[in-house]
Amino acid sequence: MRLRLLRRRLTISAPRVAIRSALPWPVRWLALAVVLGFCAAVALWAFEFGKSIAGLDTVSREELLHLRTEVARLREEGQDQQTVAHTAESLLVAERTAKEGLMAQVKQLEADNRTLREDLGFFEKLIPAATTEGLAIRSLQAEVLGGMQLRWQVLVIQASRNAPDFQGRLELVLAGTQNGQPWSQNLPAQSQPLQVRQYRRVEGLVNLPPNAVVKTVTARVLEGATVRATQSMVFE
Predict the structure, then answer these.
(1) What 8-state DSSP symbol labels residue 23?
(2) What is the rounded CA–CA span in Å between residue 117 and residue 51?
């Protein structure tokens, strides 16, 4: 009987047996996680310990310090270059300002040069001619501005070096046409006292009447009622 029961248990026709765990699944997973964490901690500790033994950690620190030093050096060089750039920009601005100042000086020198040339021409006219004696009008210049005004200039000289001062007056006479008719005018406003020792340059600006066309300008130097010198200019 016992043999028959043993044979039934060992053959295929034996009844199924269910094996159940004594621990629930959450507890199993928690235990597995603890085991894995412990294994990871041991592996990390072994890795760090191996680095310290091999000296790799010291090399990393030294390289990090070197990189930090290099970054600080590059930052200082960048600041120095920025300072140099600002200085160069300031120099460019100063150079541009100096250039503008030089250009203004050049223009002023050119204007002074023109003035000196005009004065040179003026003083050349002061040289007495060989046939000139006493008081004379050496130069008369006139220019019509916009048909409304007349700008004039008269140069009066005394050829004699030791001649006494001349006391008189200068008178300007205009002649031409107005509205197609002959026109002339003695300008009392230009009859002004004139004192000459060696030379005297007199100039002025005259307002012309409407529709007046100036053909000739005559300058006269009078001493009392006597005309001492006269000169005319004809407009073409």
Answers:
(1) S
(2) 94
